[in-house]
Amino acid sequence: MKKTRKLIMVLLALAVAVSLCACGGGNGEKVQKEASGNEISGNSPADSSVDGENDIYLFDYELTFDSRTDTDGVMISGIKDETTKNMTFPQTRVSKYNDPMPVLGIYEWAFRDNTVIENVIIPDSCYQIQNSAFSGCTNLSGVEIGSGVWLIGNSAFYGCSSLKSARLPEALDTLGSAAFQACTSLESITVPEKVTDLDEMLFSGCGALKSVSLPSGITEIKLYAFAGCSSLETITFAGTTAQWEAIIKDSEWSPDGHPFEVACSDGTLQIDGSGSIAS
Question: Considering the entire predicted model, what is its pTM?
């Protein structure tokens, strides 16, 4: 009887020990799962769009690869407080989970039709201002474009009617169609050396545009590039008169019916209302 009772007590002790071990193992597994869950959450596409507490800008959740610079980064896609008038974009994006990522540019339509913005400073880390990024920002009067920007997309600044000037960086080689169309206050602009063609409607409707400086490497001026530029007085062309004549020009590239001059390195050409050299 005593042996039986002793055996029962031993079995009960073993049962308790097994139970405690199982509970301990269960808790360990739970901690491991939670740690794993946090790690996955931090690197998942959905959470990679979560900004740090001090960020005021919105970012596109997918990483962008800039082939020109072999760089991965993020694009600014908007702003949290749409009453912000003056914007200085960051060079890196602060994240709760990931290491800081470089800001490579402004995403398409990011600030489209934002009529509150007045001044924008784009950092040197940015390479792209994509299509319609600032289209319709009618109160945008000041833009500082960083030295790294090589692309300004189609209609990027379309309808920015308060913009009087824009200094384009030397790295720029791609100016999209209608990039500055209907910038009715734009008075002058210098196109950088690497740009080789003026795309369709590039400065169309810029009624206050008086002077434009073009590099000698321009090879083509496309349809309506200067249509409606009724105040245009001078195009300063870095090449010779022969180089100007060799440029491929659409039949309707110039301001319709408005004469102006082209100042070349070896002389000045008078352009008639049809866009041809006056005889």
Answer: 0.78
